[in-house]
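help with this record:
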Amino acid sequence: MAMTREHVFGGNRTLSPVGVNLASNQSTGTATRSGRGTGAHQGTATGPADPPPDTPALPAQPGLIHIDDLPGRLSLALLVRLGIVTVLDRSTCYLNEAAGGIFGRASIVNPLLPFGAAACGSLALWVWMSGEFPEALDIISNSHFRAPVLGRPLRPHNRKLNPQYLMRVGELWVTSPLWTACDLACEEADPLNGFSRKERILELMDRYRISCPECLDLLSANPRWPGHATGVRIFTDLKDLL
């Protein structure tokens, strides 16, 4: 599904269809999909690579700031009050200006993830839609991680993922908006950033022009997903309302 979202990315930035070069150029703003499969339901993958057991140290990244690098706690409080930064934990914050676009949000998320993991679920939703930073880091991975990152647990999802639904935004691997919508619909019915799950799914579908039949087709191809019946019910209800 090729999408052009100039009002989101700015300029002529596009999401490129399957089959293009995997290299992503941040300056031109291209995000590419991975994989050689041509059919919607051919091939499976659990992520770009199996991550090692240890979470890597957080390198300096555009938009991500180590609080110890600031002049003092009073300066941090001022920056928060002025809406310049958002604090993630006692050690790290990010620039709100950087989080204003998809590629900026991807640059914030990328150093938080283990090697080879891809963002999914509520974390992918934050990359695509912004909002409040999630309390847990949802990732596609078949490994388990005990150590939290910035005080947030890593929540791995070991799901068979067709490479068609895996995209690269800058240096970050992230599930596509279509896969993300289905992922969220199959989760427990807790609120997302103060909004109902259906509201956030509808916003995501509206922004990226995703239809209920597309979501139902994807769920039909993945009947073993945890929460599958819940996801089908949500999109069936939405289909009747839209």
